[in-house]
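Following up on my earlier message about coenzyme A. Here are the inputs again, as you asked, copied directly from the submission form:
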Amino acid sequence: MRDVAIIGIGMTEFGELWEKSFRELVAEAGVRAIMDAGIEGEEIDAMYIGGMSSGMFVGQEHVGPLAVEVAGLEDLHIPATRVEGACASGGIALHQGYISVASGMYDIVVVGGAEKMTDVAGGSATNILASASDREWEAFFGATFPGLYALMATYHMHKYGTTPEQLASVAVKNHYNGSTNPKAQFKRKITVEDVLKSPLVADPLHLLDCSPVSDGAAAAILAPVEVAKKYTDKLVRIKASAMACDTLSLHGRERFDALPAAIHAAKKAYEKAGVGPKDIDLAEVHDCFTIAEIIAIEDLGFVERGRGGPATEEGITSLHGEIPVNTSGGLKSKGHPVGATGIAQLNEIVLQLRGEAGERQVKDAQIGLTHNVGGSGGTAVVNIMEVI
Ligand code: COA
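Thanks, got it. Here's what our run produced:
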């Protein structure tokens, strides 16, 4: 296996981008990544594009050739594969791109993700997102994603004493971080009181405990380390990439206070990278709901099981805390165009490891981690990156 580096990153702003089409979002993120890498389009060998449901959101399937065409590479006939794993689609695109470069199959590979979710009405978006749950046994009976995560939150509160204020402190931290990110959907700071006063969506989760419905795209360019040296001296290497799956349904899971797929993916990634949770300088985790970040920091071993709530309240995961989590604003504030999220997480980690994160720069960041989850935990991808 060859060592793999990230030589370019690019993403659109996230938000309600009515003035941009799905195709324009894909093109913008791709062009930004290509320019950042300083490569010619003709050098690209393959593409992996993550997307959850462009067919239902904008009526466009077959995204591989669309990406090839907007990049102007149709004459080269390069292979472009769309990958799908709900909200983990971007993370899976990265995992597949990594495998293809590490194996020696390809040299220069684009990994990306895109979703345009705001062209449909709110109820339709909720229904489309529910297709990432078990349609027959969950969605059909009215379990939406806020509903499924509300069940996890209720269980966590019952078992560990996690409080609504602790859940809210995740949103407060991530909105603070997002206020420093020009690409974020929400750049406004909020308070615990704002979260608790916002409308209940699925008890105990309020509107401000939820990630939003968003449009956006993100991309990155991978190359073997030896080839990467030709393009950049700011080398960021993928130290490990691991993926794991579980039951599609939440009710079929062995436990509700954790995501076993995320625990497995993290274990494999730590083993492969030869590091542990204490070695990680910062992480972008899948905070689709505030409870999801609390469970994520426990699953990743940053804090003891049950300590996610108090640890967040104490500031351990804040920008200048022991382990900064979601410096980009996370899904909560940066936005969550589901297929793009995994690659947007990578964009933030690479920016931080290159020392280019500006106001939200984590000092001396050397090792960063991304944690991307599909559905209620049916799929999880954990990637570990380091400066070399
Ligand atoms: N966080 C912060 N603000 C939000 C928000 C969020 N998640 N969602 C909406 N808003 C803001 C809007 O910008 C708008 O503000 P404005 O009045 O200043 O313009 C206001 O709240 C109302 O927006 P609206 O679009 O009418 O909200 P909604 O009630 O239709 O949707 C949710 C709110 C929480 C239901 C929706 O964002 C949602 O479904 N989120 C979860 C998405 C999801 O499940 N993703 C997959 C995860 S696995």
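One observation from looking it over: The chain has two domains: 4-121+214-236, 143-206+239-387. Hope that helps, and feel free to reply on this thread.
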